[in-house]
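B., you asked whether I could sanity-check this one before it goes into the benchmark set. Here's the sequence:
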Amino acid sequence: MRSRLLSLNGGVKDIAPANRPSPRKRFTRAARFTLIALLAALVFLAASIRAADSGNPQPTQGVADTMSLALPGTVQLQGWLGDKLNLCLNGRVWAQNPESLVAVIRNHHDNGDWRGEYWGKWYSAAVLAYAWQPTPERRAQLEQVALEVIKSQGPDGYLGSYDEKDRLTVWDIWCRKYVLLGLLAAYDLTADKTALEAARRDADNLIDNLERRKIKLVEVGVAELKGVANSSIIEPMALLYQRTGDRKYLVFAQSIIAQWNAPYSTAPQGIHLLEKALAGAPPLQNHAYAIMSCFEGICELYRATGDRQYLDAAVRFGQSVRRHERMIDGSASNHELFCDGARSQTEFLEKPQETCATVTWIKLCSQLLRLTGDPVWADEMELSLYNAMIGAMTPGGEWFSYFTQLTGERVPSFIAHADLNLSCCVASAPRGMLLTPRWAVMTAPEGPVVNLYAPGNASVKLAGGGEVNIAQETDYPVSERIKLTISPTHKQRFTLKLRIPAWSQQTALAVNGEPVACKPGDYAKLEREWAPSDEVLLTLDLRGRALPAPSGAPQLALMRGPILLALDNRLVPATDTAVWLSTDAEGFVKLKPLAAKPAWARMAFEVPFQVHPSHFYGHYTTNLALCDFASAGNAWNEKNLYRTWLPQPLFLGNAFASHTWSLLNPHSAQEPRPVIPAAVQAKAAKTKP
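And here's what the prediction gave me:
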């Protein structure tokens, strides 16, 4: 994402799915959408946008969500997952000094840099932290911090981290996107129109300056990124339109899409993000995190307008990411770029799976779940949460990795800005972690929707009045059994939806002892009159599953439910033996919990492997211990090595790649191995409950 990326391959592979429309239909649809977008751009350029802010525009929304995120304070997660969220909340979010981030904006402390993103990222995460554990003290803090930022707004409306002479260069628009998102989060939290007005003035300043200086937004910034980073400002612009009803923000957002469809200096053919998504093309092999951010904005455009092309594009883009880019642990990217990652993930990638990309994938999946009600997006978030997301967090919760290797070692993020002790991924990560309680239990018009199984409680208001408490007793995904106690305030008819993961091929479900049919990859819809203390028992299929490499390479990975399993050299020392993973005819693997599970592993299993001393004779089975991916390598040092993809056969003498941390350094292998800043560790220790 950063200005150091000077030799990126921004090419687009024109690979079409089998059901791609005919060339004539493609041309007709592409032409129609291009015409619509260009007309919007012409309106934007011809009209006086300031004059458009006449009268008293009102909030607007084109469509309502199929499912709504949980209200603040209504979902409590306990157990192992709750502990991880607490570590992130206290060790990273509340341990951060927001004044240092506000000062970047107050003092215009960027010179071709991106420090200005940090306040908005922190504030958005802090609002999620407050939504999970609301207290009067934290609310007062959030209100005060927002006011301090607003005080920094210039007379012309500019609110960002660049001096006047440097505005509309490099990362200025990108940083202002995060300022806008922070201000909008403050308005949504407090309903204080001071924050909304500050956001409007900042957006107006940007729109007016681009128009006055006749600058294309897509041509501002790092040339190799082809405008995708700045284009992601579509999201706050669409949110501003939703909250104000002022069409100039909608028109501006749509004008960015028009710019994608026409030639410009860094993309002589245009990038056509929306059109290519609608056609089912693979994602543009450019900055993964920024492109996914653009589609978060496209989701908001659909929510604002009800224009079906936006939803179709976002859904097809998400499906394309799953098909072409999302790796087995739920993340994407190499060198921060989309890289045909589903195919290339078994190779040794130098800088794979940026944590910002993990976070943005989770956030985009949350958008798609809200809009479509399709549980595939909850499956995706669960996969990312338990593997790539938690695996990227250090044991104390105060820091995260920048990149996450599927084979190698865990390495703390380098410090991008020593004056702030921060990097973009450390700042981003809590926005993915702390979104979890909001989607764990959601609300549909017909009743509650349980997406995530973890010990805890949720309180959901019902459309017909009253509310229901849902208590979960489970240690899933360690074990397969989940008990839910459903307690409405009085007997009441509603539908309880339970996510049945697509991988759970053998599922048992019962209500008060009565079996209920369900199918994988769908919601079990339990419509009945519920009484206090009704009991639901759900048993999911946690058999080990051997997954083949998407590229066809002779490698396998082992999954158990949503958990990716990995070899860790603390459990499997190097030996002069070659082994083959032992599967049955359907690709399942018999797993046995490791009797002497080490304290550092959440779960560990004995896994059968075949040893073939000769081609026909003397074959025998040996067991190797594998642990969950988030625990693998969690000593966070260069001696603790792990791997996920297993060549067939796997030679245990060189199963683990060493010294891989040197590939993760941003500039050169000569730099020292990154460490968590001592000041950050000390501050986190003080905020732990």
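One thing to flag: DSSP finds 21 helices and 23 strands in the chain. Otherwise nothing jumped out at me.
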